[in-house]
Structure to design on (780 residues):
């Protein structure tokens, strides 16, 4: 195993807060009596429902099939009855088409098997199709359909498959536990992914605060594939694809481009484990590992939670502090605050973090930019958030995009985190980006 | 679970925890040892000048924010810094009415005219001082010797000059090391300069305390050390080259570094975040420009001191430096694409 001193430029060091859950093994979470399943749990088109109200389904059965290339199917997380096909609440606040599923209380909850994808005999396309049919999306949070990501475009080739075990968000220990407990699934997933991408080598990137996971995986490295583990210094947002590529390969992904431009493909480690677990059985994804933590949670832990579990049920089971004040889906740097506890855990949910009123300090006074430069020194893309913030105030959106590379910003929030004037920089940028996108659609 | 009302905010949900007040308050802390030393060296005179400058700056800040129908901005501590810096750059026996006027000008012209904190192009204290220098060239070059025996028993009469009256210069005016060098060719001992055993502005004399204050801010990450370092290095190297060419004609780099307002200016005024560039390379260019200007003014200009003008010149260039020198954005081949 190699410890590289390489990392990307800039970045920040928020408190890690991982100690309370990183030593807790993954535990199965109980099945909620009613599951809420939005059809669209991924970027891209929602699937098409193939069941009807009142129908009984078995765990693992197809509920919705993919609708086009950028779409994945949805499988039943439990054995039960389709209660209702109707709009369901989601994290964004919008109601979207979905399924309410009642679970059988006394079912053994065994998973049905589908058509296995045989590693030896499957072609590139068959593996890619198998990953799509398993309903797999990036479990790191972005929920981009994995099959679409690993399909190498015409004229390009992949040299390096990077497995992302960075997990740089504070509080999150999901990937950490997966690496410590699911090594065989991870290596199996890597075999599928290497075959699908035709990569020459595979690097598992891990941050130095998970040295135990790096040691463990290094000790278990299989001989049949060229895979290695690299440890990189701890820094946020190293889990971002571009930053990880720079840290591991010393290359920069061109502005506006994808990792394949530097002949790399990056897949999250939990996603990789899921591929290795599901494809040999032809199964679909029905559950995922989630860190439930934060000062407001009583029984913190890493749980294997059925997709569709209502947040209210989850929090009830783990117990929350009565001063619960904010709940985030995802980590506190990039996750979203929840407005409504009736939403559910979806494929892209990596964590549920609960803060109490003690941690929330919302009456920060906002000052004008004092040009301290902290944001400039924090931005991993070397953008100038100070200038961008000023331009956003004057609504000079075109200038932000054309001269100051606004569209490259991937909203990591490092700039807002460091700003002593408490200017909501990344919030401005999200808004500006959406305004620009709308303008572009119109014109 | 009981019914909860959830608080909603957008990510990031964590913040580093520093704030403008914390930064500014720490700059004030960093200036305090120096201020006390100048009172120790110059007695009540210095105390009165410094307090008047702070009082007038804070009062002006308060009144102007009220007049513009805004919440008073004195709680951000930036006006205190302006007042302190102004007081520290004035002669210890500077008439109080002039000092008061300087504080008003610093805040009104140097800051509010540009739109307040964050929008000022120049360091406000230096704007105040520059106006005072133009208006009262004699008073601002009338010095008091350090450690006079009566410094804690009597107050110099020129301090009490009536408003709009020039003070009667009452015999304590001594040459500063820089003017002694410039006009009489006398070189003061570098160690005397470092310890502050010379006459000069209230706060510019003790180089060591200035450096300690700066070091404190750098350690707490409240100051960009590259600014003072690039200024001081530029002055050192530039004057070192001249000195090695002709040590008879040019002062030693040690003398240049430790004399006059260089240390105070480099550490506490040029480093003013608002009026300095934002990128690392920009900051270094800014420091080199200021450092070179200081040497040029001191050696070839008509004034003994050049720090104030050099920094104001740097401030004026700073927005242009920011426009011309930008970080290379990740994934692009040059800063401008
Ligand atoms: S949110 Fe955007 S601008 Fe801010 S630090 Fe991250 S990438 Fe840079
Ligand atoms: S961190 Fe905030 S105050 Fe500092 S330069 Fe950036 S926007 Fe301005």
């Amino acid at each position: 195993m190699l410890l590289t001193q390489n990392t990307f430029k800039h970045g920040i060091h928020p408190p890690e807060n991982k100690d309370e859950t990183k030593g807790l093994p993954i535990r199965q979470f109980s099945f909620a009596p009613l599951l809420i399943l939005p059809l669209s749990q991924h970027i891209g088109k929602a699937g098409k429902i193939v069941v009807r109200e009142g129908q009984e389904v078995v765990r693992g059965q197809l509920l919705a099939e993919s609708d086009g290339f950028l779409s994945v199917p949805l499988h039943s997380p439990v054995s039960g009855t389709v209660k209702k096909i109707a709009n369901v609440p989601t994290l964004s606040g919008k109601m979207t088409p979905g399924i309410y599923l009642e679970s059988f209380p006394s079912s053994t909850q065994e998973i049905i098997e589908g058509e296995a994808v045989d590693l030896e005999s499957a072609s590139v396309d068959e593996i890619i199709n198998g990953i799509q049919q398993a309903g797999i999306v990036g479990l790191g949070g972005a929920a981009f359909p994995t099959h679409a990501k690993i399909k190498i475009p015409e004229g390009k080739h992949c040299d390096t498959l990077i497995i992302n075990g960075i997990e740089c968000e504070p509080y999150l220990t999901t990937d950490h536990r997966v690496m410590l407990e699911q090594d065989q699934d991870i290596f199996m997933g890597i075999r599928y992914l290497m075959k699908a991408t035709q990569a020459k080598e595979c690097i598992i990137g891990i941050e130095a605060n998970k040295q135990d996971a790096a040691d463990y995986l290094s000790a278990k490295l299989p001989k049949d594939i060229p895979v290695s583990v690299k440890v990189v210094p701890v820094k946020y947002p190293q889990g971002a694809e571009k930053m990880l590529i720079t840290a591991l390969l010393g290359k920069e992904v061109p502005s506006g481009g994808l990792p394949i431009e530097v002949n790399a493909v990056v897949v999250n480690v939990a996603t990789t484990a899921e591929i290795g677990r599901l494809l040999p059985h032809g199964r679909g994804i029905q559950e995922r590992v989630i860190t439930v933590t934060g000062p407001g949670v009583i029984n913190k832990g890493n749980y294997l939670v059925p997709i569709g579990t209502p947040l209210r049920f989850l929090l009830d089971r783990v117990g929350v502090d009565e001063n619960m004040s904010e709940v985030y889906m995802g980590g506190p740097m990039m996750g979203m605050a929840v407005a409504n506890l009736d939403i559910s855990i979806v494929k892209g949910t990596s964590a549920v973090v609960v803060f109490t009123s003690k941690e929330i300090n919302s009456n920060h006074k906002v000052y004008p930019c004092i040009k301290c430069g902290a944001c400039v020194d924090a931005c991993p893309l070397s953008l100038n958030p100070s200038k961008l913030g000023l331009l956003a105030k004057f609504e000079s959106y075109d200038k932000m995009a054309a001269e100051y590379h606004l569209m490259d910003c991937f909203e990591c929030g490092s700039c807002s985190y460091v700003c002593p004037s408490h200017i909501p920089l990344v919030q401005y940028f999200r808004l500006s980006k959406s305004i620009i996108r709308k303008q572009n659609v119109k014109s | 679970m009981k019914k909860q009302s959830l608080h909603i905010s957008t990510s990031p949900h964590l913040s580093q925890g520093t704030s403008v007040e914390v930064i500014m308050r720490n700059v004030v802390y960093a200036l305090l040892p120096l201020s006390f030393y100048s009172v120790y060296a110059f007695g009540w005179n210095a105390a009165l000048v410094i307090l008047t400058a702070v009082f007038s700056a804070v009062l002006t800040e308060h009144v102007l924010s009220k007049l513009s129908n805004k919440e008073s901005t004195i709680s951000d501590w930036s006006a205190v810094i302006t007042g302190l810096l102004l007081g520290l750059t004035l002669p210890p026996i500077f008439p109080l009415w002039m000092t008061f006027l300087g504080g008003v000008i610093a805040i009104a012209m140097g800051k509010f005219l540009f739109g307040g904190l964050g929008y000022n192009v120049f360091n406000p204290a230096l704007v105040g001082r520059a106006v005072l220098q133009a208006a009262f060239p004699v008073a601002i070059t009338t010095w008091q010797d350090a450690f006079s025996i009566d410094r804690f028993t009597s107050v110099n009469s020129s301090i009490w000059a009536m408003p709009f009256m020039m003070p009667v210069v009452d015999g304590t005016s001594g040459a500063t090391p820089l003017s002694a060098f410039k006009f009489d060719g006398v070189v003061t001992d570098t160690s005397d300069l470092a310890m502050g055993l010379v006459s000069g502005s209230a706060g510019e004399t003790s180089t060591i305390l200035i450096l300690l204050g700066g070091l404190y801010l750098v350690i707490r990450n409240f100051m960009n050390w590259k600014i003072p370092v690039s200024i001081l290095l530029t002055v050192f190297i530039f004057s070192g080259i001249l000195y090695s060419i002709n040590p008879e004609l040019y002062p030693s780099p040690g003398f240049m570094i430790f004399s006059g307002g260089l240390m105070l200016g480099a550490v506490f005024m040029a480093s003013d975040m608002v009026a300095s560039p934002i990128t690392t390379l920009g900051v270094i260019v800014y420091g080199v420009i200021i450092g070179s200007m200081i040497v040029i003014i001191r050696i070839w200009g008509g004034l003994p001191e050049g720090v104030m003008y050099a920094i104001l010149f740097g401030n004026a260039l700073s927005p242009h430096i920011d426009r011309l020198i930008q970080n290379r954005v990740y994934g692009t081949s040059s800063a401008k694409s």
User: Anything to note?
Assistant: Chain B has 13 helices and no strands.
